[in-house]
Write a structure and sequence with these properties.
The structure holds 2 protein chains of 2 kinds. By secondary structure, chain A is an all-beta fold. Chain A has no helices and 11 strands. Chain A is globular, with a radius of gyration of 13 Å. Classes of the chains: A mainly beta, B mainly beta.
């Protein structure tokens, strides 16, 4: 298996623009997690899905952030409008119900100018 | 909610020596404690985990200990090698039968000095 796939790997955009991050989980995994990593706040869980249904979005910072999982093999995290403080590395991870391991993707480094 | 504290934030160890990283958690209901290793430019990767019904677990040079009474757990790396240099994260979860949310510590940057 190719592991969790994220795109793009790097994104540079200007303040106010819409940003869409994409994730393809490992086939057969029924949990999907979106994290944000910054030096100041560390690794934060933004939202997670089980069987494509959002279970906990309490970590989503504000209404500018939204996430969807239209099917078992694809999820998006959207920021609209983006702000400089959104600059971070965003990770997607997937896992199975029967165990606890979460497999992380390589991340998307987002820079908002 | 759960709060996980991790110490130290940085650690330098001579190659061949041992390294110990410690974490404490706040929620007594937490019962799953994984450790992740993150190399530069990559996502975190699980290296070892322990559940609350076990006090210690070992995998080659890596071991984890858990003290539920004191609510702390530790990662021990013996005979350190240069490839052990990375950032290590502890985490805690109140696993209720599924792959539930993890609360991560702030990370420890481990440097192995050749």
């Amino acid at each position: 298996d190719a592991g969790v796939i994220q795109s793009p790997r790097h994104e540079v955009t200007e303040m106010g623009q819409e940003v869409t991050l994409r994730c393809k989980p490992i086939s057969g995994h029924d949990y999907l997690f979106w994290y944000r990593q910054t030096m100041m706040r560390g690794l934060e869980l933004l939202i997670y899905f089980n069987n494509n249904v959002p279970i906990d979005d309490s970590g989503m910072p504000e209404d500018r952030f939204s996430a969807k999982m239209p099917n078992a093999s694809f999820s998006t995290l959207k920021i609209q409008p983006s702000e400089p403080r959104d600059s971070a590395v965003y990770f997607c991870a997937s896992g199975r119900r029967l165990d606890n391991e979460q497999f992380f993707g390589p991340g998307t480094r987002l820079t908002v100018l | 909610g759960e709060n996980v504290e991790q110490h130290p934030s940085t650690l330098s160890v001579q190659e061949g020596d041992s390294a110990v990283i410690k974490c404490t958690y706040s929620d007594s209901a937490s019962n799953y404690f994984p450790w992740y290793k993150q190399e530069l430019g990559k996502g975190p990767q699980l290296i070892i985990d322990i559940r609350s019904n076990v006090g210690e677990k070992k995998d080659q040079r890596i071991a984890v200990t858990l003290n539920k009474t004191a609510k702390h757990f530790s990662l021990h790396i013996t005979e350190t090698q240069p490839e052990d240099s990375a950032v290590y994260f502890c985490a805690a979860s109140g696993n209720t039968g599924g792959n539930e949310k993890l609360t991560f510590g702030t990370g420890t940057r481990l440097t192995i000095i050749p």
